[in-house]
């Protein structure tokens, strides 16, 4: 899957061939990838495949999940000049995209680590980039939420509008979905959260609740349904996430890990 993705990315940029190669001879060359800002590196798994496809060498100074600072050499490249110049933008785009997501993710993870709360990503990913972007959140320290509609049954507010009897629906769902699949139900207030637990939800997503509301739900869970997992979601920011983690919730999900990640800065310099 990674190889196919990389071949498509290369095809997008190279097209029918790099015109520079028509007017120059290839020579042995080397280059460095240099950080121009601080961050957390991600993309190694993809760049290794790129190097195999395009037949150039990488000496790694930083690996997936490592922190780096402005001015550090992240890796050294060697190969023929045509190859290094052809793959420059493909390599940097993947490295920058993944590292930017990992960098923001690590900021969230560091804030909630003392509370033992899991950080989850969401399905708010760019079309056809879900595997790549969710890989980047993992490198940053997050845990993936479901990858798609087929690996867990989530009943959001939109689904619940079509269900007249949640308890009956849950009984039927348990007969039809895989034995290993979990059911998650979204709740916007204490009453709905408690109802979802009574109906047999494996996970209850507490959506757009205040910290005070969430604390009440956590208390109810431990008193009546200790096996249920609680997930907080909805407009949780770097400024507020620690307070949510302190409520005792099991996990916090946010799409911001991906859609609010600003690109950090790196460049390739030929030796």
Automatic annotation (TrEMBL):
It comes from the Bacteria. This is nicotinate-nucleotide diphosphorylase (carboxylating). Belongs to the NadC/ModD family. One of its GO terms (cellular component) is cytoplasm. CDD domains: QPRTase (cd01572). Keywords: Glycosyltransferase, Pyridine nucleotide biosynthesis, Transferase. Residues 18-99 form the Quinolinate phosphoribosyl transferase N-terminal domain. GO terms for molecular function: nicotinate-nucleotide diphosphorylase (carboxylating) activity. One of its GO terms (biological process) is NAD+ biosynthetic process. Residues 101-269 form the Quinolinate phosphoribosyl transferase C-terminal domain. The keyword Glycoprotein does not apply. Involved in the catabolism of quinolinic acid (QA). Pathway: Cofactor biosynthesis; NAD(+) biosynthesis; nicotinate D-ribonucleotide from quinolinate: step 1/1. Pfam families: QRPTase_C, QRPTase_N. The keyword Glycosyltransferase applies. Its EC number is 2.4.2.19. InterPro entries: Aldolase_TIM, NadC, NadC/ModD, Nicotinate_pribotase-like_C, Quinolinate_PRibosylTase_N_sf, Quinolinate_PRibosylTrfase_C, Quinolinate_PRibosylTrfase_N.
